[in-house]
């Protein structure tokens, strides 16, 4: 029974969370707990958001190779962030109410992402590699533009942008956590509601259309969801390209099914497990704080190469 | 004929601009103008020209060696590998002379390039866009290893400097290694025809009597040394080796012997142009040439991906 495999995943995550919170707990207990809780919440949110986003994206892009990060979603977010600081100025940006600013950023990202990748993905899987390469180069272009603007900003404004453009679990803004949790929750509920349609969409454009799914519109809607999820995780910790690839690949490996109602929670759980376990090992056992993102990039990159080289072009 | 004159005239104008732009005015009488040019302006101009020419030529060799137009040394892990070597020698023997550091970087760049070649044998040939993608991810993995080492040893800034090409630190006595590129280019002119045959593929090249592996080896040594010299003296400059040969080949076809000097001049001119732009945009502050070039290069790469292939001639 595939369904029952979600339960051990959930239990594992719960155990890891407990470990993360209670390991070596000393006085002042409540203070340390609150700090750890904040960090744990960020890890859970980012892991789950990235895992779910990647799974959805892979379904509509008709490939197990891609992640939103690889095709430049997070670069787009960093670029938007920089543009905002650039146009509003550092002071103007900081005085924006965080909730409204975050929503506005997510909204802009959704529109931009749908415009960009909607067009690119329309061509479909027939030209997959070109789509990927376009995304990768586009990411480089956006990062280049962002760093160009960052150079023109003055140092204090640059510091504001810098927070958004490097992956780090060390500095998470507490006031963003609530907003992020809200958006993530809404997105997961929506994704679960769309699960059966995702199953149909996974059959490919022609089959899905003949089964009565308004395919193109549906793909754009899913891309909007993906963009919102990426906005959540990138805003919290910065870009992590390959975490989603690890999570989604593991979810498919552990649950040999095509039912998104199971795959979506699995991928979210696994993403969260990777982050919590990784951060726990790095921070508590090895006492190194900021290198987890690098390790994930390394492992994910290796996995990506393996997947590409294993894929025989038909 | 007009094209050649155009390139030469443009180059001359750029050189004049590069010699006359800077924080200190040449004609105010505050400085001895001749001294200023000799110590700072001329080295900087020469460094940009040599870097651009060397990387563009390295791109030609690389594309012929793996028979893929979308590959270049900056996107196949070569600069990352050179940076790794530089890191290693800085950690093990910090007091090593520059020439020693450079040799280690070159050896490491060569190893990294061979790693990519080994990978490329496993990449299906049908899809020319797959190889650059593999190269980018491969470079990302090497980069992650370098980042991790830098992180654990507090050399992060050092890596940042090595991975971002910038000519602002170039002065008399700190760039002379780049003249090695001039010597390598001369060598390349001698073996231009062999490199052309290399691009026909292994079977053709052998049947024409070419010692395939020896030629490939020689070409890749030139690439690795060029990239290592550039990384050690000014930092990585992605896209130069990709777009210059491609643009020239669209223009004038694939006679490498006839095109080499145009490729070299155009590469030098483009890098010098991005350095001059970087110096002017926020005068008297500067933006690294690599940042300017990445934006321009990524845009041209996207155009190359989607532009219809031109009729071959020449």
From TrEMBL, chain A:
UniProt GO cellular component terms: plasma membrane
Keywords, comma-separated and alphabetical: Membrane, Transmembrane, Transmembrane helix
Segments forming a coiled coil: none
Entries under InterPro entries matching the protein: ABC_transptr_permease_BtuC (IPR000522)
Gene Ontology MF terms: transmembrane transporter activity
Transmembrane segments: 42-61, 73-93, 99-121, 128-146, 177-195, 215-232, 262-282, 288-309
Pfam families attached to this UniProt entry: FecCD
Gene Ontology BP terms: siderophore-iron import into cell
Protein name: Iron chelate uptake ABC transporter family permease subunit
Organism in which the protein naturally occurs: Gymnodinialimonas ceratoperidinii
TrEMBL record, chain B:
CC terms in the record's Gene Ontology section: plasma membrane
UniProt cross-references to InterPro entries, sorted A to Z: ABC_transptr_permease_BtuC (IPR000522)
Record bears the keyword Kinase: no
TM annotation in the entry: 33-60, 81-99, 105-123, 130-149, 178-197, 217-248, 260-281, 287-306
Any one Gene Ontology BP term: siderophore-iron import into cell
Keywords for this protein: Membrane, Transmembrane, Transmembrane helix
Protein name as it appears in the record: Iron chelate uptake ABC transporter family permease subunit
């Amino acid at each position: 029974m595939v369904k029952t495999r979600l339960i051990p995943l959930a239990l594992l995550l719960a155990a890891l969370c407990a470990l993360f919170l209670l390991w070596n707990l000393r006085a002042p207990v409540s203070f340390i707990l609150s700090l750890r809780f904040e960090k744990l919440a960020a890890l859970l949110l980012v892991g789950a958001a990235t895992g779910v986003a990647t799974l959805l994206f892979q379904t509509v892009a008709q490939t197990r190779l891609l992640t939103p990060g690889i095709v430049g979603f997070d670069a787009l977010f960093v670029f938007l962030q920089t543009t905002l600081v650039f146009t509003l100025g550092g002071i103007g940006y900081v005085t924006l109410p965080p909730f409204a600013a975050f929503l506005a950023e997510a909204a802009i990202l959704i529109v931009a992402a749908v415009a960009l990748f909607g067009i690119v993905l329309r061509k479909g899987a027939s030209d997959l590699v070109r789509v990927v390469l376009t995304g990768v180069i586009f990411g480089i272009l956006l990062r280049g533009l962002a760093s160009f603007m960052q150079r023109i900003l003055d140092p204090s404004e640059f510091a504001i942008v810098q927070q958004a453009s490097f992956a780090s679990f060390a500095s998470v803004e507490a006031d963003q956590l609530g907003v992020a949790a809200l958006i993530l929750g809404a997105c997961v509920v929506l994704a679960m509601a769309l699960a059966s349609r995702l199953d149909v969409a996974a059959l490919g454009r022609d089959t899905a259309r003949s089964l009565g799914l308004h395919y193109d519109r549906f793909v754009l809607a899913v891309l909007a969801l993906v963009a919102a999820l990426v906005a959540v995780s990138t805003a919290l910790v910065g870009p992590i390209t390959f975490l989603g690839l690890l999570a989604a690949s593991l979810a498919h490996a552990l649950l040999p099914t095509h039912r998104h109602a199971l795959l979506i929670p699995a991928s979210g759980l696994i993403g969260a497990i990777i982050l919590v376990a990784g951060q726990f090992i790095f921070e508590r056992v090895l006492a190194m704080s900021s290198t987890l993102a690098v390790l994930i990039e390394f492992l994910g990159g290796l996995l990506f190469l393996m997947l590409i080289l294993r894929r025989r072009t038909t | 004929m007009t094209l050649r004159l155009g390139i030469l005239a443009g180059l001359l104008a750029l050189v004049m601009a590069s010699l006359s732009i800077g924080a200190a005015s040449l004609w105010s009488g505050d400085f001895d103008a001749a001294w200023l040019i000799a110590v700072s302006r001329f080295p900087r101009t020469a460094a940009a020209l040599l870097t651009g020419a060397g990387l563009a030529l390295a791109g030609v060799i690389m594309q012929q060696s793996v028979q893929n137009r979308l590959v270049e040394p900056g996107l196949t892990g070569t600069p990352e590998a050179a940076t790794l070597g530089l890191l290693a020698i800085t950690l093990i023997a910090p007091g090593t002379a520059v020439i020693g550091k450079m040799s280690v970087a070159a050896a490491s760049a060569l190893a990294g390039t061979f790693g990519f070649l080994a990978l490329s044998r496993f990449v299906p040939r049908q899809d020319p866009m797959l190889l650059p993608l593999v190269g980018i991810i491969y470079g990302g993995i090497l980069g992650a290893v370098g980042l991790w080492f830098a992180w654990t040893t507090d050399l992060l800034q050092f890596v940042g400097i090595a991975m971002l090409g910038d000519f602002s630190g170039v002065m008399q006595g700190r760039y002379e290694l780049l003249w090695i590129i001039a010597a390598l280019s001369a060598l390349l002119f001698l073996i231009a025809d062999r490199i052309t045959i290399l691009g026909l593929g292994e079977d053709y090249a052998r049947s024409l009597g070419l010692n395939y592996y020896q030629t490939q080896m020689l070409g890749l040594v030139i690439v690795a040394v060029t990239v290592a010299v550039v990384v050690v003296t000014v930092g990585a400059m992605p896209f130069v080796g990709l777009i210059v040969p491609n643009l020239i080949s669209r223009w004038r076809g694939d006679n490498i012997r006839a095109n080499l000097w145009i490729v070299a001049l155009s590469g030098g001119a483009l890098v010098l142009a991005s350095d001059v732009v970087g110096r002017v945009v926020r005068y008297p502050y500067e933006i690294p040439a690599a940042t300017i070039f990445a934006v321009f290069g990524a845009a041209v790469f996207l155009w190359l991906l989607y532009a219809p292939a031109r009729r071959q001639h020449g």
